[in-house]
Amino acid sequence: MVTEDEVRHIARLIRLEVDENEVSRLQEHFNEILEHFHSLGKVDLAGIDPFTPEEGRSCPLREDEVHPWSGRNAAIESAPLSDGDFFKVPRIISEVESDDA
Amino acid sequence: MTLDGLGAAETASAIRNGDVTASAVIDNVFKRVNAWESQLNALITPLEERARQDAERLDRQVKDGKAAGPLYGVPVIVKDNMCTEGIPTTCGSNILEGWRPPYDAWVIRKLREAGAVIVAKSNMDEFAMGSSTEHSAHGPTSNPWDTERVPGGSSGGSAASVSAGYVPVALGSDTGGSIRQPASFCGVYGLKPTYGLVSRFGLVAFASSLDQIGPFARNMEDLALMLSVISPHDPQDATCVEGKRPDYVRSGDNASLSGLRVGIVREFLTDAVDPELVVAVRDTAAILEDAGASIVDVQLPNAGKAGLPCYYIIAPAEASSNLARYDGIRYGRREDAGDLIGQYLKTRGAGFGNEVKRRILTGTYVLSSGYYDAYYLRALKVRRLICREFDQAFGEADVILMPTTPSLPFRKGELVDDPVQMYMSDVFTLPINLAGLPGLSMYTGSSRSGLPLGVQIVAPRWEECRLLQCGRAVENALGPAPLAGGSDR
């Protein structure tokens, strides 16, 4: 069972503001979907290693070649706030230290 | 020449030969868009002015004898999660309002090189999370066959556009069924390629190990043509596998399916599935048998039962990571708040819709400390088990036939507040994404109430040609997918 406090904690982890009336609806949704996940507990998974590629494929590599790209200005221009060649961010450390700064 | 209902290959040929102008084709596109769009809401950004300019350029090239390209002058619609340089790309979300990508997706580049004219960006469930195209910041899309019903999702706008005859072909993306399910609901063909066949460069990521781009069409020749245009290897996507692609266009030439073993999964044909869809699967099996195939029974004991919970752990986990980039700094919407954390909280809280929030919260939960082993790691193992099940089944069959969806298109509003019930819509499509296999939803006629019936066929990795051959056999028996509402509308 997921508690409302856990929902608030997860929302904070994912940097998502949820207002209080959303918290209980989200808690219901979580618990409903976690019910479905419990069926996975009955599956026999002995000896399965999900991290070893089965087809013997290794990660493809490429040459480290620089290819100039002309879209840089367009990328900066599409930012909500920019300053010359930079993306602009608000102050990072607030006056009152948050508990997860 | 009647332009309504004209296929892509026919259109390209007619324009190259001078039988019709690209400009006349675009005129017809927007005639149909203007007639239907107030009822369908299939499009987020129509591109009429740009399309007309493209068409004029293509017409001049015809006069100069320089017309070339397999999709020459063909109007195409693309889902709004594919980057189009300088053209708004919103992913159906408020958080990307006003954003114009600084580059084209690989598939967009390939379409343009083939001579296609992109006429619009289509509506979709926000960030491709949904099965009904009701979770868009731009409002829901309606099914052209019955506008009280959903077109399916998340690529509902693209599917509806082809079904309503705005265009002969469109692109969608499929992470858990988002091409195949709307193809079935809208009465068109929709193909999800093998994971790694088509480059995801420029596709806004939802779940990076599951996403694939694929085509919609009303006939198999056009579907094969689109696949051949978008599938060349792209070195910009490390998950796009190298190697020469087969000749998809010629794959449907051989009408005989002699020697082909078609697997049926009896557990998928129970009364949990609409009886008319069960009959559609059996009728399709009979068509394939008539074409020379043999029918065999195969088992997929975990794919049907464990596939859904497995997917709804892995996909949200990947989504929570992929959507972390939407922070109001580099693109899209930004909500002012005193400091950085505040900006993140407010921007994401205001910019994301409810379904996206539910999924990224679920994803974060299953990845978080204390739950990772019980949920995410376990789901990865189940995924590996499902892959092995399919490998085993493909030892006994060359393709597997099954329903695309358990139900006919449902009504708008019916499931939008019941997310877990909505997820059930993809029970037959999402195991195919988990295993990275190619899957095709074929139009197989109409229900008694006049709604389209779709049936899904699945092949081993890289065997799209088998799907295209089977699709061609079904089309030869039943005819191509008709326009919804007829061409006189």
Write up what this structure looks like:
The complex is a heterodimer of chains A (101) and B (489). Helix content of chain A is 34%, strand content 4%. With 101 residues, chain A is mainly α. Chain A has a domain at 4-41. Chain A has a two-stranded antiparallel sheet with strand order 1-2. Chain A is flat, with a radius of gyration of 23 Å. Chain B is built from 15 helices and eleven strands. Chain B has helices at 8-16, 22-40, 48-63, 106-113, 156-163, 180-186, 220-230, 275-290, 303-322, 340-351, 354-367, 373-396, 419-423, 430-434, 464-478, and strands spanning 43-46, 75-79, 117-122, 169-174, 189-192, 212-217, 261-264, 294-297, 399-403, 439-446, 452-458. Chain B has an eleven-stranded mixed sheet with strand order 1-3-2-4-6-5-10-11-9-7-8, sandwiched between helices. In chain B, helix 9 crosses helix 11 (354-367) and helix 9 crosses helix 12 (373-396). The radius of gyration of chain B is 21 Å and the shape is globular. Chains A and B meet through helix 1, helix 2 and helix 3 of A and helix 9, helix 10, helix 11 and helix 12 of B.
Any key phrases for this structure?
heterodimer; A: 101 residues; mainly alpha; two-stranded antiparallel sheet; flat; B: 489 residues; alpha/beta; Amidase signature (AS) enzymes; 2 domains; 15 helices
As residue ranges, the low-confidence spans of chain B are none
Oligomer: heterodimer
Our estimate of the beta-strand percent of chain A is under 5%
Largest sheet of chain B: 11 strands, mixed
Percent of residues in helices of chain A comes to 25-40%
CATH class of the largest domain in chain B reads: Alpha Beta
- Topology of chain B as a string of helices (H) and strands (E): HHEHEHEHEHEEHEHEHHHHEHHEEH
Q: Describe the sheet with the most strands of chain A.
A: 2 strands, antiparallel
| Average pLDDT over all residues of chain B | 96
Order of helices and strands of chain A: HHHEE
Give the overall silhouette of chain B: globular
